[in-house]
Amino acid sequence: MEIIETNLRDVKILRPQVFGDDRGFFMETFREKFFKTQVADFDFVQDNHSSSGQGILRGLHYQIRQTQGKLVRVISGQVFDVAVDIRKNSPDFGKWTGVVLSAENKDMFWVPPGFAHGFYVMSGQAEFVYKCTDYYAPEFERSIFWNDPAIGIDWPLVNGQPPKLSPKDAAGLLLETAEVF
Questions:
Q1: Which of 62, 117, 120, 130 is catalytic?
Q2: Which of 52, 56, 131, 168 could form a disulfide with 71 if both were Cys (CB 3.0 to 4.6 A apart)?
């Protein structure tokens, strides 16, 4: 597994070694000891799987308590995945990094606790799977507006069209008024 640093401390891209031939491929997607020693010392307690159509944007989500680190990957389609540092005392506070995750590149993205997370579906459909370091707790979930100008995420919007949002995400707060860490 190759670990690729991003412009944000603690956020990493993980590139698995893929063994393939005319029959298909094999790859290891997670090994606890490697992850804990080379990426971050966390235990995972929940796995999630979502499916979304083109133009859907989910995020920017986080839990203010029961904070979740997420190890994310795409098993079908392609997304633009984003992490935003929302730790007030971090030198990277309010900064973002993004990566294209796809079934083809098989890359994974580590988004630690203390970061807001979101993704935008670039392909016709995408299936997104992720491991979480704590359980989903809707009472602690928060959302920062996807297009907050103070953050300035450069979303690769298909045909420049606005993304499709859930009502919760459409009502996301700006970073300056959001509850942060």
A1: 130
A2: 131
Active site residue 49: no
Domain membership flag for residue 176: no
Question: Do the beta carbons of residue 108 and residue 26 sit within 8 Å?
Answer: no
Tell me the pLDDT of the chain (181 aa) as tens digits.
999 999 998 999 999 999 999 999 999 999 999 999 999 999 999 999 999 999 999 999 999 999 999 999 999 999 999 999 999 999 999 999 999 999 999 999 999 999 999 999 999 999 999 999 999 999 999 999 999 999 999 999 999 999 999 999 999 999 999 999 9
Whether the predicted model's global pTM rises above the 0.85 cut = yes
Residue 131 lies in a domain: yes
Kindly state whether residue 178 falls inside one of the protein's structural domains.
no
Q: What range defines the domain where residue 60 resides?
A: 2-19+26-170
Question: What stretch of H or E contains 3?
Answer: strand 2-5
Amino acid letter at 62?
Y
Structural domains of the chain, count: 1
